[in-house]
Design goal:
It is built from 12 helices and 17 strands. By secondary structure, it is of the alpha/beta class. The longest helix has 25 residues. The protein starts with a helix and ends in a 15-residue tail after the last strand.
Length: 446
């Protein structure tokens, strides 16, 4: 009986695998999209984009004077609201004339490939709330992350890899909530690489048995027990996801180590990312790994760089962080472009908010969710574009404001998904990434 049952389950598993191979694990987008995948470069802590991308002559002129406009009702820390000029200069770059700080010479060199949105804004001035709002669309309730929504909607392009990978994620300010699938089926959660452990590989990816034939038999037996349990319980998303996770983990043991291993990359590519020398080596390796995962068919890859929360030591900290980040980011965009992948890969750069034009102490800036800059490249975005603006001092989004909901709606649109129709029913209502808001920002679409 056991032999026949085992053979039967083996045949079922084989049939399912063949069906998936024939159909592919990815899902066709409902609309014609320009982007097939996303790489999100998350600057955890909130970089001071009023210094990096949005220079203000009046801020320089009036430095040390009180901020002349009405201050926000809620702020993160107490302040005298005295204006603080930037320690650095910005210059117009390329044919677009986009302003980029002298701290970022490599990003400045690719300014004509980028679209700068200077009028970003969100609803929360605290790291945890703003981080979750950027990643999930909500700063108050548990919601699926952006990567999980896209993974759910489109799936992975590679049967042997997850649809959503997060590299070096933060363990704080929302933690796993930033890459969780929440009430979506668990198999759409992000797969973590690195993070708090510091080890840049998928946890538990090593095969302790070193005998794939034996492991295959064990998984088939385990799957038979789980399917029998599932037949008795009826529909159970968590159990179904657990079964799928065992199968995916088995396949990942063969695929992931090769994709993660950047040692095979030529020296000039490592140099392009700064993966060959400090201070760019660590983040450069992560960006290079992101390109390899994206190229291999992972739908959504996120890489986190931290920690940009410069309440004090703004000059020293931003100089250090910019030196780590600048070359890898420019290298990633340039590498995708030279490989012919940028047109179908959307690259997104930004933090959970920006920083105030007013001073905190003598050399720091507070959180600013009211007006800040993010930039994008590829995937159908209009290159060489500066969209929107903040007020004369860089505090509030003024012209063509773009909320996180609008950003999410635009990303889904570029992926071929109508954000208003893309819903999941849970607890008696239909949920979506953009909640009940969000408009596609057509002005930044090529």
């Amino acid at each position: 009986m056991l032999q026949r049952s085992g053979t039967g389950f083996g045949a079922l598993a084989l049939q399912a695998m063949l069906a998936r191979e024939a159909a592919g694990s990815s899902k066709a987008p409902p609309l014609p999209g320009t982007a097939k995948r996303v790489i999100f470069l998350f600057m955890h802590g909130g970089p001071s984009t009023v210094d990096l991308f949005d220079p203000k002559p009046l801020l320089t002129r009036d430095s040390g004077k009180p901020f002349p406009l009405k201050a926000p009702r809620i702020t993160s820390h107490k302040s005298k609201n005295l204006l603080l000029k930037s320690p650095w200069s910005c210059q117009p770059r390329g044919e677009s004339g986009a302003q980029v700080c002298d701290l970022l010479p490599n990003i400045a060199s690719i300014a004509d490939d980028l679209c700068f949105v200077r009028s970003m804004n969100c609803s929360n001035s605290r790291h945890g709330g703003a981080l979750l709002e950027l990643h999930t669309g909500s700063d108050t309730f548990t919601r699926p992350s952006m990567g999980s929504w896209i993974n759910y909607g489109l799936g992975s392009e590679n049967e042997n890899l997850p649809g959503f990978i997060t590299i070096n994620p933060s363990g704080s300010h929302g933690g796993a909530g930033a890459w969780s699938s929440a009430f979506l089926p668990a198999k759409y959660s992000g797969t973590r690489i690195g993070g708090k452990s510091g080890e840049m590989k998928v946890p538990f990816i090593d095969n302790p048995l070193h005998d794939r034939g034996k492991q295959r038999k064990e998984l088939d037996l385990l799957a038979s027990f789980n399917r029998d349990h599932l037949a008795q319980r009826g529909a159970d998303s968590e159990l179904e996801s657990r079964i799928a996770s065992y199968e995916l983990a088995f396949k990942m043991q063969m695929e992931v180590p090769g994709v993660q291993d950047i040692s095979s990359e030529p020296a000039h590519i490592k140099k392009l990312y700064g993966a060959d020398i400090d201070p760019t080596k660590s983040f450069g390796e992560q960006c290079l790994m992101a390109r390899r995962f994206s190229e291999a068919g992972v739908r959504f890859v996120q890489v986190t760089h931290r920690y940009w929360d410069s309440h004090g030591n703004l000059k020293k900290e931003h100089e250090k962080l910019s030196a780590e980040m600048d070359k890898p980011v420019a290298g990633l965009v340039s590498d995708l472009k030279q490989r012919g992948l940028l047109d179908e890969t959307l690259v997104l750069w930004g933090g959970e908010f920006g920083r105030t034009p007013t001073a905190q102490g003598n050399d720091g800036r507070d959180h600013n969710p009211h007006g800040f800059t993010m930039f994008m490249a590829g995937g159908g975005i209009k290159p060489g574009t500066v969209y929107g603006s903040t007020d004369d001092y860089g505090y509030y989004a003024k012209d063509k404001p773009v909320h996180f909901h609008d950003l999410h709606a635009t990303i889904l649109h570029l992926m071929g998904i109508d954000h208003e129709e893309f819903t999941y029913r849970y607890a008696g209502r239909n949920f979506r990434l953009t909640d009940v808001a969000g408009k596609v920002v057509n002005g930044i679409i090529a």
